[in-house]
Structure formats: structure tokens, C-alpha cells
Amino acid sequence: MSPNDRHTERPETWHAALHRLQRDGVPHALATQVTSAGSTPREPGARMVITAEGVHDTLGGGTFEWQTIEAARQRLEAGQAGMTLEAFSLGGRSGQCCGGFVNVLIEVFPGSQTTLAIFGAGHVGTELVRLAAPLPWRVLWHDSRDDIFPDWADATPRLECRPSPEPGAAVSRLPAGSHVLVLTHDHAEDRELMDALLARGDMGSIGLIGSRSKWASFRSRLSAAGHSEAALAKVRCPIGTAHGPAASRNALSRTKGSDKTPYAIALATLAELLALVDQAAAPPGEAQRGLDPAELRALF
């Protein structure tokens, strides 16, 4: 971009920013002015998009806008997804001379529904990344080998390729609650990863590619390394059985006639993960969702 282009480039509108951030899975907030009374900088329907680093469009400027940005960023930092309603007396709370009243709806979007960490960029790992691309998930793709990631990976939204020569260090950097799949090219590396993942104890789920005999060997060694039976029981191996940890190890898992092509394994594994992610995200009981009805009655 030339210096002249910088001066003529127009700021990104709120709707363009919203589309880009949702496509790329970046946490953000949408602030919408829903009511106004008296003298106010903007009218109902004005919107702005807020991220941890930037602001797109405006609700009119001044202290009231700064307070809206701060409220949105506090919720982004705390990971408080959902809707909240902020009321501003411009002459009181915001100290602005126009003296009107404004209500702003702040909608916080976490960016990605969950984080999927895949260790291994072989055939199954590649098919998993392709199949997961349309989902609202953040995907962290690890491999210890040099120049293993395909060129198309750089243009895939919400995908981060992470060369990981030290598996233990890569595990330590995973976000808590990540769903992890271990399918590297090397059994020793698989064992190192499993040891580190079980030691953390805060993953959303852990899946290991391989047969029941592979898991029996791994389980024995991991148990000898000090991991509890409760922790080991949560590991899925073989992956892609879609029946939970217990069924993953019974006689029906991966029967001799099942399709073991990389695409079929990846497809079954992703179906299994969809159920696990939905289960983790399900609200407890019949909890109230959205804005409290009393807030809306007072507002309208």
C-alpha cells in the first residue's frame, strides 16, 4: 500500500467488521443504541463493533461512547458471552452537556464456540482440519516435523498452524477446556503428549488414534507414570466410535469390516466431537437465557 492509499482508505464500517470478525472467529462485541430520550449524539439503530484492540464505527463519541467501550471490553476479557443492557444518563452517568438518556444493548460474541487442538498433520489430521473448517471452532494444528503443513492452511479461517518440536511445551500453551486429538506419526510422541495432557487435567476431552491394543499398552504405561484410573477412563481410544469413552473400548469398537480410510475416520471423529462440544456448552437445567423480562418491560 502506498502512502497516498493510506490517506484515502476508508475506516471499516460496523457491518463489515462484524462479518470479518465472525468469519475469523475473533472475540468481539456489538453495541446497539436501542432507545433514546432528549438530546443524544445518535438515534436508535446506531451501532459500533468493539474488540480488545479496536473500535469500528461510532455511537457519537464522548464519555458515553468511552463507557460503552469499557463495558464491552470488561465482558470480553471475562469471557461473558451473551447480551446485557446498559442505561446512560448523559448528563449524570456520562457528564455530557446534551443531557439525554440512552439505552445500549451490548452483545458479546466469544469468537469461537470451542477450541480443537489436533496433534498430527498426517492424512487423518488433514481430513479433520478440512471437515472442521466450516464449524465455528478455533483449530490449533500442531506437528513436530518441519514444513509439514499444506499451503492452503494459511487461508483457512480460525486455523492456526503451530510447529511444535517440543510436545510438552505445546500442551502447556493450550487453552483450558480444549478438545484434543492425538494422532502423530510417532508412538513415543503420542505417549509424551498423553502424559502432558493428563497431567494438566483441564482439557474438555482427549482422543487418541489407534487400536484397542495400542490403548492397552499406553494405559499400562500411563498408569505406571502415576495417572489415576478416573483420568485414564476419560480418554477415547479408538476415536470416532461416537459412543463415548466406555464404548470406545468394547468389542464393538472399530470392527474388522469398518472403513479405516482417513476421511472415514475423520468424519466419525468429528461427529463424536460435535456431541461432546454440544454437551459441554449445554446450559444447566432450565436456566433463564437472554435479557431478563423485567429489564425489557422497563425499557419499552
Keywords, separated by commas or semicolons:
300 residues, alpha/beta, Rossmann fold, 6-stranded parallel beta sheet, 5-stranded antiparallel beta sheet, 11 strands, elongated, disordered N terminus, MoCofactor_Util/Proc, XdhC_CoxI
Descriptive report:
By secondary structure, this protein is an alpha/beta fold. It has two domains: 13-111, no CATH class; 114-278, Rossmann fold (3-Layer(aba) Sandwich), CATH 3.40.50. The protein has eleven helices and eleven strands. The protein has helices at residues 3-8, 14-24, 62-78, 123-132, 167-172, 187-200, 212-224, 229-232, 244-247, 262-281, 293-299; strands spanning 28-37, 47-50, 55-56, 82-89, 101-109, 114-119, 137-143, 159-163, 179-182, 205-208, 235-236. It has a six-stranded parallel beta sheet, with helices on both faces. The protein has a five-stranded antiparallel beta sheet with strand order 3-2-1-5-4. Strand 2 and strand 3 form a beta hairpin. Helix 4 (123-132) crosses helix 10 (262-281). The model is unreliable at 1-8 and 244-256 (pLDDT under 50). It holds the Pfam family XdhC_CoxI. InterPro entries: D-isomer_DH_CS1, MoCofactor_Util/Proc, NAD(P)-bd_dom_sf, Xanthine_DH_XdhC, XdhC_CoxI, XdhC_Rossmann_dom. GO terms for molecular function: oxidoreductase activity, acting on the CH-OH group of donors, NAD or NADP as acceptor. It comes from Halomonas urumqiensis. This is Xanthine dehydrogenase accessory protein XdhC.
